[in-house]
Fold this sequence. Notes:
Layout: H1 5-25, H2 36-49, H3 52-62, H4 71-95, H5 101-108, H6 117-138, H7 141-161, H8 163-166, H9 172-187, H10 189-192, H11 197-217, H12 231-245, H13 252-261, H14 266-273, H15 275-281, H16 289-292, H17 295-327, H18 329-346
Keywords: Acyltransferase, Transferase
InterPro entries: Acyl_transf_3_dom
Protein name: Surface polysaccharide O-acyltransferase-like enzyme
Amino acid sequence: MKRNYGIDVARVLAMFMVVVIHNLNQGGVLKNTISTLGFLSSYELFNISIVAVNLFALITGYLYFGKGSKLKRVVGLYFEVWALSVLALVLYMGFIGIPSKLDILKSFFPLSGGVFWYFNAYVGFVIIEPLLRRGIKVISKNTLLKICLVLLVFSGTVGFTDTKVLQIGYSTEWIIILFITGILIREYSLEISKIKSNILVFVVILASLSSLAAEFILKSHAIRFAAYTSPLVIVESLALFILISRIKVDNVVIQKILRFVSPLSFGVYILDTSVVFYGYFLKDLFKNITIDHYPILTLVIVLLCSLLFFTIFILINFVRAKIFEFLGINKLINKISEFLEMTMSKMNL
């Protein structure tokens, strides 16, 4: 099957957006913006980038062909998460300072400490995936579409207003819903292809601006329209994903760059969300630039720093991958995966 480089673009863009979101939020830009122009510009960038997690989950479904989740992938990610979490701690302690004992402990046990919610939610998805696989096989495409539409409407209404239902998107349930949606986007690709790209661009812009208007009007209220399960963000995510999946990459150099960056991009999320980087280094890092610079220049600085962080994180993860290869960690991952697969096959999963 010919590689769809548009999906690689979506994966890389999603991880870059995660960096942007964290820089705006944890970096102190949003909470320290006092001018109306500053609020509108920074929150519009946030509203555009908030689709990051939704895009990543949609990709999982889009690339799914009913063969089951590869345990090797999950085990490999577990080793990657642990290694990058510890590596981030070592780099921080070597160049900046010593974090608290609790945060050192969290860095060594990131999953049990709840540091990387997306990976934990993904593991939950993998556990339930065999059941989903069997259900998808026996349900007709049309019936699955109806179920998915009901789930999306429910998520964008009850799941949005009641934070306990889907935890506003920070949950395995939400990943499962997007996973099913991603499958249907691929299955109905012929029908979806009839939607013109300029209409999708209009939908993305309209949804993000509508979300911005809602944020501006309700900025003193508890409801956040810039949330994963917001109806506007759901629509924006779907339109943007379909739009990006249409991107054709014919340039050989760009193809090589995407093949290099795409497999390493999940490490960007791990490093950017690590205890020491997110909790110490990034906290209020951009607080003063909202005071010292015009709003537009502030966003330019944030975007450039996001690109810098993204590049550094990719390189760090590349070094990690080479270390794994040198130490034979990949062979260990294969053995563990084979053992788990053999065990699961005996259980008829």
